[in-house]
Amino acid sequence: MQKTKKAIDNFLLITASILLLVLTLVTLWQVFTRFVLGSPSVATEEIAGFSLIWIAMLGAAYGFGSDEHLSLDFIRERFQGRAYLGVRAAIDAVVLLFALFVLVIGGGILVNVTWSEVSPIMGFSMGAVYSIVPISGVFIIIYQVMNVLTRNSAKGEEQT
């Protein structure tokens, strides 16, 4: 399971890093063309915006992989023992349900509805741009299941 997690981590980090580089380069190009050449590049705004969407969604998925997402820590820290385990299980369930219904299913609907729409400047399919929503949802579900299994196996080892 650790090899799978490491492979997903690397994929997300490398992809997000490449997109961050693209975002930086197109932003610099936009500034250069606007202020030095006096004729701004029109495509860079769309590319930067689409890159930012993908970076944010990939970063969110990675955050779940490292178990460093917002999980109502201020509530969780108030509990200990059995109550802590119950709160932790509830948080895990909410994350899984949200990722499944909102990101994967809702994101899939979003992709289907917007697939034939094209961005005004670059002509990209908006469905392709939004496809990162269900993709990140799948990664979040995989990570969350791994996190639960890791915590449960660690808990089982403590009891033996």
From TrEMBL:
The membrane topology of this protein is:
Multi-pass membrane protein
GO biological processes: C4-dicarboxylate transport
Q: Any keyword Transmembrane helix? A: yes
Keywords for this entry?
A: Cell inner membrane, Cell membrane, Membrane, Transmembrane, Transmembrane helix, Transport
Q: Which GO terms describe its molecular function?
A: transmembrane transporter activity
The record's section on Pfam families has: DctQ
State the InterPro entries in the record: DctQ, TRAP_DctQ
GO CC annotation:
plasma membrane
Q: Does the keyword Repressor apply?
A: no
Compartments reported by the entry: Cell inner membrane
Q: The Tripartite ATP-independent periplasmic transporters DctQ component domain covers which part of the protein?
A: 23-150
Please give the start and end residues of each transmembrane region. 12-32, 47-64, 85-109, 121-143
> What does the sequence similarity comment in the record state about its family?
Belongs to the TRAP transporter small permease family.
Q: What is this protein called?
A: TRAP-type C4-dicarboxylate transport system, small permease component
- The species is Salibacterium qingdaonense
